[in-house]
Amino acid sequence: MTKKATSNESEASASTDVLTPAQRAFCMSHNRGKDTKPEILLRSACHALGLRHRLKANIPGRPDFVYMSSKVAVFVDGCFWHACPVHYQAPKTRAEFWNEKRQRNRARDEAVNAQLIARGWIPLRVWEHDVKADVEAVACHIAELVRERSRER
Ligand SMILES: [Zn+2]
């Protein structure tokens, strides 16, 4: 009555090999080395959806890239530096120092958001881990927002 593993083997090996295009792109670019950061992955995914970004704009906060016509500023926030709720773990040593630094970063993020909103911009902050998990989903979200905003204006 025992079911042997052999019957499932082909299925199992097939499923281990299945990656979404986004995951595969991520893995491949990851192997290419240190240059491919999450913001670059996201930027090219957005570009593939037809969005045309700029890297620099004369606005507060140094966003990773921006969409001028819809005034959307994209920030890819690192899980550690911006203390994401999923991955951030306080370092064991110098806890006080890191805690203060984290709070300073968060306060600065919020100040930048407020300054951008005051100038008619939308600060769009995405987590590094979301980009790594599914860059295309994040890019689609950005594309919707950018197109929606372009229509409004
Ligand atoms: Zn995270």
TrEMBL record:
<keyword id="KW-0255">Endonuclease</keyword>
<dbReference type="Pfam" id="PF03852">
    <property type="entry name" value="Vsr"/>
</dbReference>
<dbReference type="InterPro" id="IPR004603">
    <property type="entry name" value="DNA_mismatch_endonuc_vsr"/>
</dbReference>
<keyword id="KW-0378">Hydrolase</keyword>
<keyword id="KW-0540">Nuclease</keyword>
<dbReference type="GO" id="GO:0004519">
    <property type="term" value="F:endonuclease activity"/>
</dbReference>
<keyword id="KW-0227">DNA damage</keyword>
<comment type="similarity">
    <text>Belongs to the Vsr family.</text>
</comment>
<keyword id="KW-0234">DNA repair</keyword>
<dbReference type="GO" id="GO:0006298">
    <property type="term" value="P:mismatch repair"/>
</dbReference>
<dbReference type="InterPro" id="IPR011335">
    <property type="entry name" value="Restrct_endonuc-II-like"/>
</dbReference>
<dbReference type="GO" id="GO:0016787">
    <property type="term" value="F:hydrolase activity"/>
</dbReference>
<protein>
    <submittedName>
        <fullName>Very short patch repair endonuclease</fullName>
    </submittedName>
</protein>
